[in-house]
Predict the 3D structure of the following.
Amino acid sequence: MMKSNKSNIYIVGLILLTFFVISFLTNILGALNPKVTESYVLTETMAGFLPFAFFIAYGVMSIPSGFLLEKWGEKKMMIIAFGMAFAGVVVFAIFPRFDVYLVSLFTIGGGMAALQVIINPLLRVSGGEEHYAFNSVLAQLIFGLASFISPQMYSYFVSNIDQGNVEKPLIGLMSGLVPETMSWVSVYWVFSIIALLMVVVIAFMSFPKVELQDDEKVGTRESYLELFKNRYVILYFLGIFAYVGAEQGISYWMSKFLENYHGIDPDTAGADAVSYFWGLMTVGGVLGLVLLKLMDSKLILRGFTILAIVCVAAGLFGSAQVSLWAFPISGFFLSVMYPVIVSLGLNSVKHHHGSFAGILMTGIAGGAIVQILIGGISDLISLKIGMMFLFITLGYILSISFWAKPLVKNKTI
């Protein structure tokens, strides 16, 4: 245990800040997509490689991070993770080439994947098990807040740099650091400062000793082999794969779609749409928590998924004004999917929950594969047809609400 309650509070504060930084660095890609595509003259398939490079790191790093965590401990792993993120962003900020960008995104993604593995058990121990549910919800709210702020920060820097407002000290500094036609690179200079500060802060903090519970341990090779024989493990892995594919598919391609089909400025209204998507997802998450106390989680998943499908259809086939709101509102209905799929999955097996959680986290690679598919279809036919692939991912999530048979149901009032 830790020396005092005061030091406990500092660690909880650090973890909440870590959630903020993970979200701040992760959910900027959708706002950046049109500008990056323009800067490097990318096809839609090549644009799909950007989220691919980032999210495939989750598929590669999630399980190894669990093993390294048990070997090296939380503090060292957090320093390494933020160190990876800092290296990724600063190298790209200095050498803003496309090939460097892909390597940079993979490096940042690897660091973020490691942090996701570390911070939940650490939050349970430092905040106390009796406060864990509350702190987890608070962490998700902070995660959502950062997702809302990140595209707004992008919009501020890009708009001011492009307009030549160099009399503003920060804008003047950034204008000198970025290539003339690549004002969006300024966000990576901001990220480099944030990542470096996190390394310094963590280095000076003392951490509690975390005894991992059975459902938090990575598990043995035998436990993975046993789990893979259970068809529900594969089905729920595909559920997370489909969810992250859909979430990133909407948030990543939304601004590009609005620009291509409705002539909406990606640096202002397009960035706002991405920002509202994440903001509404946070609001939906709060409502979802209330509903989970009142209704069966399968029914909530079914209702929210149907409404998300309606929103995506309205976004793809509606007018400019309808599209501008339908895509962000879909975030509200996506909000319950991830926690419900994870809880249904973990409640569907009796043993090896830690290993199963690692398999589910690997499913985050869906954010990588689905974007390549959307990009590829977009180049062959059109972006609208490419984004219709989202109906397949959302359709699979809808199917979970019919075939899920958890051993334990969510407790309702």
